[in-house]
Write a structure and sequence with these properties.
single chain; alpha+beta; four-stranded antiparallel beta sheet; three-stranded mixed beta sheet; 7 helices; 25% strand; rod-shaped
Length: 174
């Protein structure tokens, strides 16, 4: 298939293939920037393999799921092992999790927002429920204070007391 793609000078990249156990069908997965007219390629492949041929165009996330690889965390990419179908991933999810909005830091191998942002989003929302928001004035045992930072994973907030002193408090103690 790769050879025929080159011979026909088609603007596509072959990623993977599946062959039915009884060899009744072969499915080729490919990526391309635009639609590709691959009818002649299918004819070539049918002639060569004498079976039913399907070509399926996939997106960047599906390509990464099939090829696999290591994410910036050092583990196998989430879409390849733990997330069967990733719902839409948004910048809002990165903001809620306190991530840097630098595209290099929040993009996966596919060049899109990392799948794990969606996977962890609900957990962050749940943990954030009992923590006062930044800018809010709260009452502590030592007096009034203004919240300046949150550490959702630790369940802590940093506050500035009325006397100007910065203090870190556990949200559960408030």
């Amino acid at each position: 298939c790769k050879e025929r793609i080159q011979v026909r000078n088609l603007p596509m990249k072959l990623i993977d293939l599946e062959c039915a156990f009884d060899k009744s069908k072969i499915i080729f997965y490919f990526t391309a920037d635009n639609r590709v007219d691959f009818r002649e390629l299918v004819r070539d492949l049918v002639q060569k393999f004498k079976t039913r041929i399907e070509l399926r165009q996939i997106g960047a996330r599906q390509e990464t799921r099939l090829v696999k690889g290591l994410g910036i965390c050092g583990r196998e990419v989430c879409c390849a092992n733990s997330l069967p179908n990733v719902e839409r991933v948004s910048i809002k999810m990165a903001k809620e999790q306190g991530m840097s909005l630098n595209p290099e830091k929040i993009s996966g191998l596919c060049g899109r927002l990392m799948c794990c942002l969606a996977f962890e989003y609900e957990g962050y929302l749940e943990m954030r429920k009992g923590i006062p928001k930044c800018g809010k004035t709260i009452h502590t045992p030592a007096g009034c204070a203004k919240v300046i930072r949150q550490n959702v994973l630790r369940g802590e907030i940093a506050v500035i007391m009325e006397n100007g002193k910065e203090v870190t408090l556990k949200a559960k103690d408030l």
